[in-house]
Q: What sequence folds into this?
């Protein structure tokens, strides 16, 4: 892929979904700390503060006519990757003493708007295998 290659439609839709999710979270009082934070092969879409809680927000954007719901993309493998990335984020920012949680921002692209539904505590670490 060349440096001037246009991003794919899916990538553009994902970027618009992340923008919509960030705006939505800010209207709910969240403070966005980082977007698309990367460590090695892992990525965190949004890292926010909700009061004193660090919130790792996975953003999933789907078109309104999509057969799959955004939440279906949070497979056990994806959750494990998010946990590893979050651990690295907590380490690199010295935040292990802070409460944290994993939320899902399910964004639906209706063609005229991006509708955001926030699922707080979308998953926890119970039963997770490293």
A:
């Amino acid at each position: 892929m060349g440096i001037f290659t246009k991003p794919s439609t899916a990538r553009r839709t994902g970027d618009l979904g992340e923008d919509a999710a960030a705006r939505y979270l800010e209207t709910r009082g969240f403070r966005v700390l980082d977007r698309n934070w990367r460590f090695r092969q892992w990525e965190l879409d949004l890292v926010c503060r909700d009061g004193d809680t660090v919130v790792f927000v996975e953003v999933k954007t789907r078109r309104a006519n999509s057969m799959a719901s955004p939440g279906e993309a949070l497979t056990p493998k994806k959750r494990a990757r998010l946990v590893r990335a979050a651990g690295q984020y907590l380490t690199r920012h010295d935040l292990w003493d802070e409460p944290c949680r994993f939320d899902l921002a399910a964004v639906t692209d209706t063609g005229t708007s991006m509708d955001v539904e926030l699922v707080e505590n979308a998953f926890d670490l119970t039963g997770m295998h490293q």
Strands lie at 31-39, 42-50, 53-63, 100-109, 114-123. Residues 20-122 form a domain with the Trna Endonuclease; Chain: A, domain 1 fold (CATH 3.40.1350.10). The mean pLDDT is 86.
